Amino acid sequence: MFLAAALCHTNVTQGTAPHTQKLTHSSLIENLMPEITLPDVEINLFTPKNPTTAKIVENYVCTEESSPNVIRHITIDLEGSGLEGVFRSGQSIGILPPGENEKGKPHKLRLYSVSSPSKGEGGNPNYVSTTVKRANEEVDGVFYTGICSNYLSNLKPGDELSITGPSGKRYLLPSNADEFNYVFFATGTGVAPFRGMIMELIEAGHKGQIVLIFGCPYRTDLLYKSYFESLEKEHDNVHYIKMISREDRRSDGSKKYVQTAIEDYDELLAPILASDNTLVYLCGMKGMQTGIYEQLAKKGYTDYLTAKGEAAEKDPSEWTWEDLKTSVKPSDRTFEEVY
Length: 339
Hints:
Layout: H1 4-8, E1 10-14, E2 20-25, E3 36-39, E4 52-61, E5 71-77, E6 92-96, E7 110-113, E8 127-133, E9 136-139, E10 142-145, H2 147-154, E11 160-167, E12 181-187, H3 192-203, E13 210-216, H4 225-234, E14 238-244, H5 261-264, H6 266-274, E15 278-284, H7 288-298, E16 305-307, H8 321-326, E17 328-330, E18 334-338
């Protein structure tokens, strides 16, 4: 019987203090873990039917020159848009590419995670940044180009664009962020929200543990590498783990992925994940969560998971891959953003 999910179940209620949402834990574990208090944020101030206009400030490649991928750091000036100082790290900005699809309808909105802290890129509340991979790939003999990613990648400083947002009200740092440790799992551009979140934690003088586990195929794709490496050198509580799937191998010869870090870096991660005040965040391609949840369950870190249906009646060690894909979900200690 999977009991951890029942013990860790929480309800989202409006906080007694203004501008907060509270995840109120059952009395069984109230004394073990701090209450997770999420900030009350503004969302959908501008929509696809009512967008606003902003301008590009900077647009540069943040992968190495030899990388097979082109990923850009893009900063947008919100001055005069009505969205100045509104975006919070963890939220997303909507981009409306111009033009129409093959059916004559306007191109659909695309959401991009904000990579700047809540104070704005470089501390400027008018600036918000995001991280964009230029999508050009062949699938089953057909070559696809990402409409919005290529549109964004081609923009120059001073160019205007139509935007919406903010989007997202749960994928955030808690208001009481200083009471927790953090383990961030990222693949590719999924590192974007963690750049902003970690910037905020560092600026606030966070004393808890901060772990970033970043996975990519090649070393040339390590985004914001120098920033995270410098943080690890300067702060004893910051740990930057790089999992390079197509270049590095584990001791058994298998590839390194973000989920295998749970076992490979057990000495570092075990006491952090076992702590009652640790939160897990993951962001990246859809499917990454399944491997992470499998490893968490194998190691006995079931407080980060909740199960339904037949999986709830099984011991977590007996969960099948299908159980993990369909019946095992994040608990309130786990924040998931996959695309």
